[in-house]
């Protein structure tokens, strides 16, 4: 098998069957080739990551400009492996040349926790005598240890254990029956697992014990719903069909749709990576964003009681949004005509594995695109909108994150995230005081306050890589009411603050001024407005980071201190909380704070820049979120402003068009499928 | 015709054919009956409004409690009429008893401007010699006066003319061809129209003249698009069908859908009014909101240059969101299986008129309702969501407002508003400096900065009328980082501020603290969380009112000074900028500020209250908004918190359900209609 793949790779890199596009994720064959190349020189390794080392931006842009006259970027693998004694190796392997480019032992770091790392813990926990003892204390007999479960989390950081030993904390649960939701039965103690020795090295035990919950199960599976009277029967089907197929085209992983064109990448960590996004503006393929991805996230919990003070998760940096991604299915996760893409990763043993249907691509009707009626004569144009959705869903232990990148015909890019899944829960004695740090969502179940903060990495390319960010605030005129300049007091304007360096660019959200951030190309002015071509970041779910300045999460999640950071582009700056996130102490802070501190006065105006945007929501749990949470949506927009000469979607065929003259207008495309719900008069 | 209707009404009020539901809008017959009753006593009237005078809340609630033992609320008409000399009469007519209940001359007010009032102006303007002269000055010869158009607006307020003469300002435009968009050809002067004398009494002329625009037309009708190469041809159809019909039922104007039940009203002013909204919670029909409506809005413009300083529109109070509503059509405005409702109004002559298909009711698939996968074994439940949408669209001269009331299966009510249509534009000389007050969106076309601020009237009924509002802010613990109480600095909680009186309840938005407002019933605590049953207002598009304190808009639009006001319920407090809005000076401020000033210490805790929420957006125009604006959406949520025992939609049939035990689970409802986009492997 591995040999076959080696041959395939050889064929690919020699060009016999056409090579992957430079931004494509590594194929299964390439992954196994990288492993084989490393194993020629290094033994006894477990593999943590083998992923595409993306072409350097300058190299990639040069090749795109002149693919024939410029060397094709090599296929290169970025490798993290763990050797004996938990030694961590970072390596780069050039697959095109078949050789290791760099290989280094990296001290004092912990690479992310893979699904395999996670799955080991539960079986160890069940057999550990100290865990069995603790289970006994709260009412679980030794013969029921098969009913004990755990969600292993990285430890985050705990100063008692530091960063050198690879640790997981086991959030403990119980299931009376295998199909019962364990989140109704949280256990009150927390074992600490040493991944090197594969043993429990400590158990955090609360001063007040909480016997295992005696409440009945709270389930949502079919058997439970049927036992309570069954499913509702009053939902009639809505069928969505695309008899002529989809409106997008795929060329490998490059999608074209409604003037948009982009490359769809995917990696173990960020999940979806959208690159070289262009918009065909009347024949002119104009760049908009070089690369968009969710680069990091942090979920800080708000309970300071030991050991919950350390509970927070960097779901991307500590576990990987790609590694945790779901295999999707037609008609369940998406409706209509669906195109899926798979995702391939390395496993611990160095073999390639593939998640089928990791990425979903589909279109949806999007309601009214534009409409106007002349009130004089009711002449009217109404045009319906279509949207393209590129999505994946990942499961981070209890939570589900559904990530939708949505492209609109008007040049807008929308990122929508839906949160669903299950609350992280902790044990409480019946009607124990939660001290305001959580909510009893079910008898004996305490769901702690928390935030979900996402860091969107925006690498803009607004008509070219030289871009500038302005903060824009609706601002009242200084002139007083009654003055000649402002008689009625109505004057207001868009106050623009130009970001010159990364320190000055650290900025927070202000809803009062409708604050947005404009990403401009100052070298190109709109012929009508005279303003730089730009995309505007419109994001309204932007709370402050609740953990305090100087505290653990504040130190570790430097990206979350401000809504916006801007840095000068650097090929190596992808991960805003650092490359290896688990067990970082935050001293010094990795990622964004370190990069900014290293060059606080770097010029970020009219140059190649990256905008890092942290947004999200604050979640005070309620019983409605239990036992499974109805999806909570959150959305932001990147909107073209002064970018197009005018509305760029006027040529979308209208549903209806009439004009004041009454002259016949062609092109009316009334949907003949839709119907009245009831017969006339009923 | 009118006599027939009188008979119908007689039949209805005598109960022969079943009377309208007390909250139903007046029928055509009832409208004409009201007019006939008034005309028996009063002559020479033009009718401005004949609309339902809604039953008093106490009376209506008593009747709902005991429909047999309590008198049915009478059918009553609320009438505004204009007599000779622009005298304004406010009247109430009891249709059940066939008599006038009250009739009064109201001094110093102007009722709203109807579509008929608006349509008179253009023909007068075209014939006015002073207007013809001004047209000549900017390059329009007298023989082209048929190419001159105007959008008549109320004057707002202009201290030169005061409130006693009924005025409109004519925003002037030109069309080279009847089908050309006039908003590319704004004229630089502004005639003032006296509605009593039907003549132009003044023209505001700018110091610097701007000849009529010489730019070519900027159109979006079919002929224009075809002249430029035609419509795009790469959109394949998406068909939405409901072969078994819709999932909602109509009983008159009461709709039932997915445990929701509510009455759908409609009036000339607020448009949609949703009343007595209940949610069937396992057989218990629980009240949530007594009445929801968009009660007012204001669009202040930000240019202080004369005469633009007075440009602002109260689209509901000055024109009527119902009066301006569109007649909708299947497949254009909505797709799927649609139920429409008509809307009837009075005209100037006292006859009933009806807008067909004024209200659209339909369902849509709403993506994932909830999903969770167990990472151990990939057992998974995924359930798709459905939403019910009750909508109307109104055209306010240049702008379109699409109002969508969306009901979700999880008990959430969402209000989404889409803005589309055309920017209000003013003339500019080519590349004239806009001084920051506007944008040249097309050569010679200046679109001024503005806001769209909506006032949502929330009359809550959270398990009964006695409700309390809390402001909720995510707040960090006071304990310092490193202290025993907050070692890692992560502690945060939901700080709740109870609103006790209307002055204290005046509150602004704070994105930093994820501020929400909880509408609670303190008399009913959730059995698990111990917290009052509540609905949470989650609204994130909440800029400050830009016009300055003490200025005209600040005075006239008192509701927009704060994001939230709370008042004690009063049957007569429906219109937050006052009953008659045109030409109010704001001295004193009408509506909310007057009500609060009248009783600043009224108790608003644990009593019958109304929450007034102002939200919206700030619009700095860009060329992409021209010549017609791609829809810009805005959304807020009312979410149940501590209201349901648990997630109330667990019994929605899943698309897929598997369990860890592998035991067969019934009820899986995978959509068999959806398909892969491409053949396998392509
Ligand atoms: Co949450
Ligand atoms: Co606008």
Automatic annotation (TrEMBL), chains A, B:
> Which residues are reported to carry the modification 2',4',5'-topaquinone?
399
Q: What sections of the protein cross the membrane? A: none
Annotated ranges, domain Copper amine oxidase N2-terminal: 22-104
Its domain of life reads Eukaryota
- Note the SUPFAM superfamilies from the entry: Amine oxidase catalytic domain (SSF49998), Amine oxidase N-terminal region (SSF54416)
UniProt-recorded Gene Ontology molecular function terms:
copper ion binding; primary methylamine oxidase activity; quinone binding
Q: Which reaction does it catalyse?
A: a primary methyl amine + O2 + H2O = an aldehyde + H2O2 + NH4(+)
Q: What is its EC number?
A: 1.4.3.-
Domain (Copper amine oxidase catalytic) spans 238-650
- Tell me which cofactor or cofactors this protein depends on: Cu cation; Mn(2+); Zn(2+)
Single Gene Ontology BP annotation:
amine metabolic process
Where in the sequence is the active site? 315 (proton acceptor), 399 (schiff-base intermediate with substrate)
Quaternary structure and interacting proteins, as annotated? Homodimer.
Question: Do you know which PANTHER family this protein is assigned to?
Answer: COPPER AMINE OXIDASE, COPPER AMINE OXIDASE 1-RELATED
Mind telling me what this protein is named?
Answer: Amine oxidase
Q: Native species of this protein?
A: Westerdykella ornata
């Amino acid at each position: 098998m591995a040999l076959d793949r080696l041959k395939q790779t050889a064929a690919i890199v020699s060009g016999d069957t056409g090579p992957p596009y430079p931004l494509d994720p590594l194929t299964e064959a390439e992954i196994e080739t990288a492993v084989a190349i490393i194993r020629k020189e290094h033994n006894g390794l477990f593999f943590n990551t083998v992923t595409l080392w993306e072409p350097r931006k300058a190299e990639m842009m040069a090749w795109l400009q002149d693919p024939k006259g410029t060397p094709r970027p090599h296929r290169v693998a970025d490798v993290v492996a763990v050797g004996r004694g938990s030694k961590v190796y970072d390596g780069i392997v050039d697959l095109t040349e078949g050789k290791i480019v760099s290989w280094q032992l990296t001290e004092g770091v912990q690479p992310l926790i893979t699904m395999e790392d996670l799955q080991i813990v539960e079986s160890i926990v069940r057999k550990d005598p100290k865990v069995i003892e603790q289970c006994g204390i709260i009412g679980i007999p030794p013969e029921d240890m098969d009913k004990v479960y755990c969600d292993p989390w990285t430890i985050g950081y705990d100063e008692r254990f530091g960063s050198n030993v690879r640790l997981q904390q086991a959030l403990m649960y119980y299931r009376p029956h295998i199909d019962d939701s364990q989140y109704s039965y949280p256990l009150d103690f927390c074992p600490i697992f040493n991944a090197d020795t594969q043993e429990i090295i400590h158990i955090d035990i609360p001063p007040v014990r909480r016997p295992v919950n005696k409440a009945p199960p709270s389930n949502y599976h079919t058997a439970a719903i049927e036992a309570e009277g069954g499913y509702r029967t009053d939902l009639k089907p809505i069928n969505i069909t695309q008899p002529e197929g989809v409106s997008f085209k795929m060329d490998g992983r490059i999608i074209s749709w409604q003037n948009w064109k982009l490359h769809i990448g995917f990696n173990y960590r960020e999940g979806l990576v959208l690159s070289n996004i262009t918009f065909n503006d009347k024949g002119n393929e104009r760049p908009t964003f070089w690369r968009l991805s969710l680069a990091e996230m942090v979920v800080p919990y708000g309970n300071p009681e030991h050991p919950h003070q350390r509970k927070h998760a960097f779901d991307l940096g500590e576990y990987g949004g790609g590694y945790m991604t779901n295999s999707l299915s037609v008609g369940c996760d998406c409706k209509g005509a669906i195109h899926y893409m798979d995702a391939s990763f390395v496993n611990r043993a160095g073999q390639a594995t593939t998640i089928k249907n990791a990425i979903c691509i589909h279109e949806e009707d999007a309601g009214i695109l534009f409409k106007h009626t002349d009130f004089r004569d009711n002449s009217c144009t109404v045009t319906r909108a279509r949207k393209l959705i590129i999505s994946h869903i990942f499961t981070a232990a209890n939570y589900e994150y559904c990530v939708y990148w949505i492209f609109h015909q008007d040049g807008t890019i929308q990122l929508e995230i839906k949160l669903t899944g299950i609350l992280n829960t902790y044990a409480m004695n019946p009607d124990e005081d939660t001290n305001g740090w959580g909510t009893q969502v079910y008898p004996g179940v305490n769901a702690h306050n928390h935030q979900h903060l996402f860091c969107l990495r925006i690498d803009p390319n607004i008509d070219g890589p030289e871009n500038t960010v302005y903060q824009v605030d609706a601002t009242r005129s200084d002139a007083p009411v009654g003055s000649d300049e402002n008689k009625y007091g109505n004057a207001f304007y868009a106050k623009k603050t130009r970001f010159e360096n990364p320190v000055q660019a650290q900025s927070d959200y202000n809803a009062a001024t409708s604050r947005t951030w404009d990403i401009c190309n100052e070298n190109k002015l709109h012929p009508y407005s005279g303003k730089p071509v730009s995309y505007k970041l419109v994001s309204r779910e932007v709370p402050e980071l609740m953990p305090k300045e100087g505290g653990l999460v504040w130190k570790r999640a430097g990206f979350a201190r401000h809504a916006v950071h801007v840095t000068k582009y650097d090929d190596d700056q992808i991960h805003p909380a650092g490359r290896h996130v688990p067990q970082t102490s935050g001293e010094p802070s990795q990622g964004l704070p370190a990069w900014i501190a290293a060059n606080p006065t770097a010029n970020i105006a009219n140059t190649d820049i990256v905008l890092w945007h942290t947004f999200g929501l604050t979640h005070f749990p309620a019983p409605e979120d239990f036992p499974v949470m109805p999806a909570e949506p959150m959305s932001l927009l990147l909107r073209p402003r002064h970018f197009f000469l005018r509305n760029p979607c006027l040529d979308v065929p209208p549903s209806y068009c009439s004009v004041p003259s009454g002259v016949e207008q062609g092109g009316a495309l009334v949907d003949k499928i839709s119907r009245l719900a009831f017969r006339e008069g009923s």
